Amino acid sequence: MGNTTRSILTISHQYGSGGSRIARDLGQRLQWAVWEKEIVRKIATQYKVSEEYVEAKDERVDSFIERMVGLFGMGGFESAYEVPPPLWLTDAQLARMTRSIVEDVAKEGRAIIVGRAGNLILADHPRTLHVFILAPLPVRIGRVMETEGLTHAAAEQRVAGMDKLRADYVRTFYHADWRDPGHYHLVIDSGVWEEGGTTELITWALERAS
Q1: CB distance 132 to 181 below 8 Å
Q2: Class for domain 8-208, per CATH?
Q3: What is the pLDDT of residues 27-48, one digit of tens each?
Q4: DSSP character at residue 195
Q5: Of 34, 12, 19, which Cα lies nearest the Cα of 112?
Q6: What gap in Å lies between CA 95 and CA 68, rounded to an integer?
Q7: CB atoms within 10 A of CB 124
């Protein structure tokens, strides 16, 4: 796998489509670094804030807490997220930090960037393949029920809420529609191909894309 034509892969994915696990599988297969929660850790280390704080704000905009309370109710919100008291770090600053890290990772190559509008940040970067992974809603709800131990109703709410947060983040900071296929080279339905087949398709595309 060392002779892949593209040396950077960005993966955007609907919540519950298996995108994170697919990225990890690809990272092991290609021996490439995977940047997902690693971005959170790097920001937390560089700016001396807790990982939980960065995670609470990651891929979200200023009305995060209010909107999440509206989606899940305060009890569900508190049980799902650990949100420390607000610190100095604003969402706009966090977005700039994230962009800087993604650009630095791209310079090194041989990396997979998951979410964080990586496809838009690196839209003009050479040797980069941008992938969007989706799946039908029932499939995504079923996966979230299984992986997170939620009821059907709670999983459905989680999927809708997380998709909305990601869409709002991309629209706010990059003025783009996160779901627009025009922002990607490859769109894959993991409900059809399952996680293994999706991994194979992306590997094939990396090796053959010019």
Answers
A1: yes
A2: alpha beta
A3: 999 999 999 888 777 777 776 6
A4: H
A5: 34
A6: 19
A7: 6
